[in-house]
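Suppose you are handed only these lines of text.
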Amino acid sequence: MTRAGFSRSRTELVCEDVPLSAIAAAVGTPLYVYSGATIRARYRALDEAFDGYPHRLHYALKANSTFALVQLLRQLGSAVDANSIWEVDVAQRAGFPPADMVFTGVGKSMQELAQAVPLGLRAINVESPGELERIETIAARLDRVARVAIRVNPDIDAGSHPHISTGLKINKFGVPADVARELMASIGSRPHLKLVAIHVHVGSQITSLAPLRGAAAFLAELAAELDARGLSLEYLDLGGGLGISYDGSDVVSPREYVAALVDEVRSTRLPIVIEPGRSIVGPAGVLVGTVIDIKRRAENSDFAVLDAGMTELMRPALYGAFHRIEPVKAATGVPRHYEMVGPVCETTDVVGRDRMLPTLAVGDLVAIHDVGAYGAAMASNYNRRPLPAEVLVDDGQWRIIKRRQTVDDQLALER
Ligand code: LLP
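From them, the structure of the protein bound to LLP can be written out as follows.
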């Protein structure tokens, strides 16, 4: 039977039984490889954890919106969270109807709103009084009713990396509860707006239950208060944020997470929307790179220079993020100390600090794990490096879902 995800055969790392070295030989490196089976399994685990409680998963496209993966999520029955009008566009092209999309994001331009309002999205998640007014103006001009959700900032510490914690009142996201109350009360007398939900999202890569539960409790309480004032909602949007284990340590499971959400919200009887990104696609991707140079760093330590670095995977440079790295081929050499670095002219271009790995040689392939979320999606052309190729392995077959960019592709935009 094919094994889901990434595992080691006798001789090397495989994705659903397809050797990564075979894909790398055909496509070159740096290269993202995704496991379709892992995405399916992780989507289903979250979905089934609701155990009959009314809900909808709105996959957060920002984690990875490579088209074939967006289509795969659609086949699985997912809805989406789009964070820009361009993500809305991609989702539409992948077949998602507007009613299956929420449009989130702290800064939606007038142009984005003007395009979004006539679509009739499930909701535009509103981040400020000014944005609500702009939506209203556009809807009035079109003589439509815009469905809106108010993003509330609960002032909860997600306990994640400060760069990806969003729930404190000092963060730029959402509006405080008192402002939210005023906005919601005002919507009743604004005929071009319909309040359909309230929304929280307190951060990403959250590995303990307390902030996630706290945010749900906060929203449920606010919903109860609204209900008592005769304002009824269609659902509660609890955002994304469930973390994954990058280093093997324990994290909250989808079951525990969903059970806590349902537990906090059940008394409102409102359906739950969540916007998971990382927890669905994060563990479903590896970045395969080639060792292009080895050089002495200290007595007992070498630099291993890879053809994959911060241009392909920003997370280590940006957040000091840890990703497991291992050689693709079965290791024979004695363990040695390495600083695993990328080729870019930036000191922060280190994909793995302080690693003990079997002795590496130029030409060896290495795999950087758990990069399905916020990997390819955050890649850049710095140093004119081409965006990497991406491959999907599914049903024992692999195929290129994004070819490697060329200089021609880059220059095609330039005059
Ligand atoms: N909903 C909203 C409103 C969000 O801002 C985000 C992520 C999500 C949902 C999805 O969160 P997830 O389930 O993936 O945690 N680049 C960073 C992560 C930034 C997350 C931004 N917002 C990283 O590489 O860790």
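What can we learn from it? Residues 60, 62-63, 81, 104, 164, 201, 204-205, 239-242, 275-279, 315, 373-374 surround LLP (CB under 6 Å). DSSP finds twelve helices and 20 strands in the chain.
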